[in-house]
Prior knowledge:
There is one protein chain. This protein is an alpha+beta fold. The chain has one domain. Helices cover 38% and strands 23% of the residues. It contains three helices and five strands. The chain has helices spanning 10-22, 61-73, 96-111, and strands at residues 2-4, 28-32, 48-54, 79-84, 87-91. The longest helix has 16 residues, at 96-111. The model is unreliable at 40-47 (pLDDT under 50).
Amino acid sequence: xxxxxxxxxxxxxxxxxxxxxxxxxxxxxxxxxxxxxxxxxxxxxxxxxxxxxxxxxxxxxxxxxxxxxxxxxxxxxxxxxxxxxxxxxxxxxxxxxxxxxxxxxxxxxxxx
Length: 112
């Protein structure tokens, strides 16, 4: 997943998110250094971090989706892009209710 923030506090925000994700039943959560800014991004490379999450099983995926949604909505300017092969999901700071159905559909597809 890629984490975007508007402020220069991306590193600390991503480390905080990593700690929250580790509280789930995941195998690993790594901060991935890359510095590459995606095409069309309106931020600098210092405000983007990639986090890789390794899971032993798929039941935690929906929980991960909820955690990511909650994390994004806690501060202005946050956005997460989750990639799974050709599929991607962008979670923005809209209301939790706006994101819930789309997030659950994305992550449930992985569970099935």
